[in-house]
Each structure stands twice: as structure tokens, then as C-alpha cells.
Amino acid sequence: MENNSKKFYERRSIRLPDYDYTQESLYYITLCCQHRLKLFGEVVNSELMPNAAGKMVEEEWKALTTRFPEIRLHAYVVMPNHFHAIVEMCSTEQMDSKNEKSPTLGNVIAGFKSIVTVNYIRGVKELGWQPFDKKVWQRNYWEHIIRNDQAYQKITDYIIENPIYWKEDDLYT
């Protein structure tokens, strides 16, 4: 009997194999809007002008520490069609004593993308926000493990200055 179900293609993971994404570390992340749609505002004269959706993204980012007390949020910026941030995965000793599983970086990002999507859909339906094609976010996210203070400072500067260089950004379309 022939299998007529959709063929699923194996996707190669962009995560480091055998790396424990629950361990204490700093991560630089980038999330992009599907089709690079400018859903979160605009940059005018090198200054970010978030719309209501961009403000919602920022609020949900700040609220993540309530849902995931084992993280700390560092520098971040909501750009018109993407989001940059530094996330710190902190000690999970208290959680381990309760036999709870520590969240991975992927769990944190998935939670953030999910709540932003739910709220964005509500904004489209109730507030007239710009519609989108099936997904707010691209399927995955880019991540870099920050290994020293020099890298941390360079990435922090990049995040803070991102609106200044918007028109030269690879994500500017």
C-alpha cells in the first residue's frame, strides 16, 4: 500500500550538537518576522519608532522573567522586522531540588514567539494591525553563545546601535 501522506523533509538543526542549552550562559539571539514583513514599526532618522505591535513585543519580552524566573534579560531591540536580544540562562539549583526540568533557551524563545503571535493575531482582529501570512515569525531563530566580556560588549553595542545602521542592515528590505 502506497503512503500518500505528505513527505516530511529532515531539517538540519542549527543548534550545537551535544550542547546543553539549559546551562548558565549568555546568548545573543535574533528572531525574524516571516517574509521579513515590517510588523513592529519603522526607523525614522536612525531612531526606532515602534508601533503598537512593537510595543507589545517589548512588553512581552520584559514579562518573560515572570514565566521563566531562571533567565535574566540584557540588551534588546525591537526592529521593524526582527528582534535582537541577549538572554542569560541562570542557575537552576532551586528548580533541580524540586525535580523540575530546567527550561532550555529554545523553550524560552518558543514561549516568547508563541505569546507574541497570540497577541499579534488579537491585534489584527481587534485593532487593525497589519495582517501577516500564516506566521508572525520565521520557523527558527539565530543564536550565538557569548563566551567573554569583549564579545558581550561588542554585541551589546551592536544591539543598542542597530536602529542607527538600519538601512545598511542585511534585514532591511
Automatic annotation (TrEMBL):
* Domain spans labelled Transposase IS200-like: 22-162
Q: Which InterPro entries match?
A: RAYT_transposase (IPR052715), Transposase_17 (IPR002686), Transposase_17_sf (IPR036515)
Recorded GO MF terms: sequence-specific DNA binding; transposase activity
SUPFAM superfamilies with a match to the protein in the record: Transposase IS200-like
Q: Which domain of life is it from?
A: Bacteria
The processes (GO biological process) annotated in the record are: DNA transposition
**What is this protein's record name?**
Transposase IS200-like domain-containing protein
Query: What is this organism's lineage?
Result: Bacteria, Pseudomonadati, Bacteroidota, Cytophagia, Cytophagales
